[in-house]
From TrEMBL:
Name of the protein described by the UniProt record: Protein phosphatase methylesterase 1
Its job: Demethylates proteins that have been reversibly carboxymethylated. Demethylates PPP2CB (in vitro) and PPP2CA. Binding to PPP2CA displaces the manganese ion and inactivates the enzyme.
UniProt organism field: Sarcophilus harrisii
Family per similarity comment: Belongs to the AB hydrolase superfamily.
Gene, per the UniProt record: PPME1
Record text on subunit structure and interactions: Binds PPP2CA and PPP2CB.
EC category: hydrolase
Amino acid sequence: METAMKSPGRKRDFSPVSWNQYFESMEDVVVENESGKDTFRIYKSGSEGPVLLLLHGGGHSALSWAVFTAAIISRIQCRIVALDLRSHGETKVKNSEDLSAETMAKDVGNVVEAMYGDLPPPIMLIGHSMGGAIAVHTAASNLVPSLLGLCMIDVVEGTAMDALNSMQNFLRGRPKTFKSLENAIEWSVKSGQIRNLESARVSMVGQVKQCEGALSPEVSKTVVEGIIEEEEEDEEGSESVNKRKKEDDTEAKKDHPYTWRIELAKTEKYWDGWFRGLSNLFLSCPIPKLLLLAGVDRLDKDLTIGQMQGKFQMQVLPQCGHAVHEDAPDKVAEAVATFLIRHRFTEPIGGFQCVFPGC
């Protein structure tokens, strides 16, 4: 019977899974500022131990940490706070266009202050990709007074800066819309964006949203951009081409009611600021540091020297894509748990044994 169930012909389940299968609670934290009120969505688990404040990558959401959260909570005493960064997930801010590293780092500090007041518990910042860069900017600006550790997941200045040139091509290559959540989840797994179906089923819900009306504002803007490009390329007959393109797209919207929550292509002006100078900023933070990478080839010169000098601990997790914490949540949980226990920041639970050798 079991063999029959595991046969390759078995249809995989791409249906979405709710956040509450992995997190204990969800709340919206209100931060007041000059322009009014911003509301940040957080997901929480655990009741004692240090707080692991989790910052997701560009386009993702706090839900990308769901499976990791279940894995780490079962290994060590800790509290999880996974945050939807501005313009991502269910967070609602007045100035959603501003995705500068400075603004996002301030957001993290403001959320910590709104949650804990003047006496925050010990906090470790853990960030993936863009979120890793924001974690470093937050730490370097001393915006979290009780910070005890810092972890970057698969973000290295040298590699990130090199990759920026091809980022727009990557974004253009993604589907603009999806027929359903199932369709989006299936695409994320089959395209290799998320290599772990369990994580994709809970996290893709935070990456896409239902289009508003027949034609969502995001998609209509994309169409307009496409039209401008076409006019530049071909002046003659462009009107009929444009009209046909608009009609086709309106028709497509009826069949494809889901689109991306954030248009990452429009955040390009901030990319340089997220990553430039990141390696030295990371090395300058005077707290225990951990770097988790999908491949050792990702190290740049500054980090290679810093690693040789023992300025941070490093773990390479092969067989992972860029979304390391989604592809291998147990391995990432083991690495983070080992780091925290080694520094005596927490206690193991459930007989968890440190598995990694000293890095």
